[in-house]
Amino acid sequence: MIEWEDIYKVVAAMAPLYVALILGYGSVKWWHMFKSEQCDAINRFNCFFIIPFFNFEFIANFDPYNVNGLFLSGDVISKALLIVILVLWANFYKKGNFSWSITTFSLSTLNNTLVVGVPLMKAMYGKLGVDLVIQAAVIQALLWLTSLLFALEFWKTKMNSNGNSVELASISDLEGNNTSVNPVRNNTNNGLAFRPLIKAVSIKLAKNPNTYACFLGLIWALLANRWNFEMPIIIEGSFLIMSKAGSGVAMFSMGLFMALQGKIVACGAALTIYAMILRFVVGPATMALGCVVLGLHGNVLRVAIIQSALPQAITSFVYAQEYGLHADVLSTAVIVGTIISLPLLIAYYAVLDIMH
């Protein structure tokens, strides 16, 4: 049973995020310290320097020989199912488009496994919960964030290649009006041919440190755990001095973005509700389906469902802002979702305990 002390520990992990957020917001809104291009530079610094160091350092200290294969398989099945649905929607539904498929994938699958997930899972399920949520964080960094990067780079490259043939993704998809928010492209018959497009995307990803930081960390983890050696202190310290700034700089950057937008909830009520449904309903539902198919049960199944309902990953906003795709929706998902997540997650915990 969760004690008040456990709830305090989770709140204590969340609160510093909002301190950084408020400082970022105030530095533009009240103190006028940064201009728009400077705010973009801060987010780019976080995207291409801090996050790669964070991912490498985190995965390098992970034990890849001690994982729950069924749990990770359930995660892969659930997200693969969602990808198939989104691909079909984008290609065969009249109002479907690629840009909203990417954002929907982010909102449904990418969660804050470390800052919020670790203390919460420790309070709910002890060591088992912590072990599984860390495994989920590793597979998210290795597979799903890398997939998101590929999709974003593909979208941006295709957008730039199509010149003036632009189809505007509009809020009418969800709110019924015609307010344009992001340029997206028509089908792949326009612009670059598919093979040159993939080549262009691959070249850009090869220059992106986020692409290979996770895999270098995994290679180190495999070697270090196989032959029982540790990273030299001077090298580890060099990584830590950058990686420790990850969440703080990301939330600070989000505060800057909010101030530039002029309002805290930049995307409107309908899109906020849409984001919350994806994060706290669709995500856990698809995860439950993937795990049940594999026959998972007991606390492993419960941990799988609850960790998939954790608040939105901060990294998803950083990438969205860098690539210019629905950053307003992702920022709202992080801010609002983190605030309302604790009572919702406790409710999930109680319901699953009663069902057990």
Automatic annotation (TrEMBL):
Q: Which domain of life is it from?
A: Eukaryota
According to the UniProt record, one GO cellular component term is: plasma membrane
GO terms under biological process = auxin polar transport; auxin-activated signaling pathway
Transmembrane residues, as ranges? 7-28, 76-93, 100-120, 132-152, 212-229, 249-275, 287-310, 330-351
InterPro entries registered for this protein in UniProt: Auxin_eff_plant, Auxin_Efflux_Carrier, Mem_transp_PIN-like
Q: Which keywords has UniProt assigned to this entry?
A: Auxin signaling pathway, Membrane, Transmembrane, Transmembrane helix, Transport
> Which GO molecular function terms does the record list?
auxin efflux transmembrane transporter activity
What is the topology of this protein in the membrane according to its UniProt annotation?
Multi-pass membrane protein
Location within or outside the cell: Membrane
Question: Where does it mainly reside?
Answer: membrane
| Annotated family | Belongs to the auxin efflux carrier (TC 2.A.69.1) family.
Q: Sum up the protein's function in the record's words.
A: May act as a component of the auxin efflux carrier.
Q: What is this protein called?
A: Auxin efflux carrier component
